[in-house]
Amino acid sequence: MDPAKLRALLEQVKLGDVSIEAALGELRDLPFRQLGHVATVDHHRHLRLGYPEVVLGTGKTGVQIAEIMAELARTGANVLATRVDAAQAEVVSAQLPAARYHADARALVIEQQPWQDLGLGTVLVVSAGTSDQAVAEEATLTARLLGNRVDRVYDVGVAGVHRTLSKLDALRAASVLIVVAGMEGALPSLVAGLVDRPVIAVPTSVGYGASFGGLAALLGMLSSCAAGVTVVNIDNGFGAAYAAALINRRRE
C-alpha cells in the first residue's frame, strides 16, 4: 500500500469519516496476497521500503505477468514489470489495456499516479555505446518511475574520449550517475575520475568473445582504480536505478 494512501485512510478514521471496520477492509490484503500457486504479491513492500514491488518478467508467462500487475495495480499504485519481451507484452496488453509497453527498455508500465519529484537532484544515465541502450533505458525508466529527475548522456564510450569530455558539465551537475558499458567496461572509471558524485557502474553483456557475456566488463569495473564506483550485476539496469533512487531520495 502507498504510504500516502495509508496516511490519508488513517486520517479519515481519526476524523470519523471512515469506520474502523471499513479501514480494516481496506487493509485486509496486507502484508501480502496469494495468487493461486504461482505468486505471492507483497503489498507491504511500499510501506517497508518506500517503493512498491516490481515484477520480473523473465521466466513468467504473459498471463502470469498480467495477473501480478493487475493485483499490484488494484491498490492504485504505479506498476512496473521489467524484462518483458514483445510476445509477453502483447498478452498483458490484451488483458490490461492500461499497461504501456516500452520496447526500448523491455518493460511494461501502468501509471495511475502522477509523477512526483522525490529526489535531491538529477540521476544521470550514461552509456558507452548504442548497443548498451536497452540496459540504459531500463535504468532510465526505472529511475523516473521511482520519482527521480533523469537525464541521459548516450554513446560516449572511451573509444572516443573527447565525446565524454564534451559532456563534462552534465556529468558534474548530476547527483548520482549510472554508467552503463560493455566490452572492457572502462567508462565508469573515467567518469568517476571526473566527478565528485556516486557512480553506479552497470556492466552489459555487449562485446566480442573474450568479453564472456559481460564478465570482462564486470571484473574491470570491480577492479576500478577510481574511488567511489559501486558495481551491480551484468545487465542490471533496474538494480542500478533502484540504488540510485535510494541515494538520491529526500528524507522527510
Write a compact overview of the structure shown:
The protein has 252 residues and is an alpha/beta fold. The chain has eleven helices and eleven strands.
Largest sheet: 5 strands, parallel
Class derived from helix and strand content: alpha/beta
What is the C-alpha radius of gyration, as a whole number of Å? 20 Å
Count of distinct structural domains: 2
Keywords for this entry:
5-stranded parallel sheet; Rossmann fold; 4-stranded mixed sheet; alpha/beta
Please, could you describe this protein's structure?
The structure is a single chain. The chain has 252 residues and is an alpha/beta fold. It folds into two domains: 30-110, no CATH class; 122-248, 3-Layer(aba) Sandwich (Rossmann fold), CATH 3.40.50.1970. It is built from eleven helices and eleven strands. The strands form three sheets. It has a five-stranded parallel β-sheet with strand order 8-7-9-10-11. A four-stranded mixed β-sheet has the order 3-4-6-5, sandwiched between helices. Helix 4 crosses helix 5 (86-95) and helix 6 runs parallel beside helix 11. The longest helix has 13 residues, at 3-15. The mean pLDDT is 87.
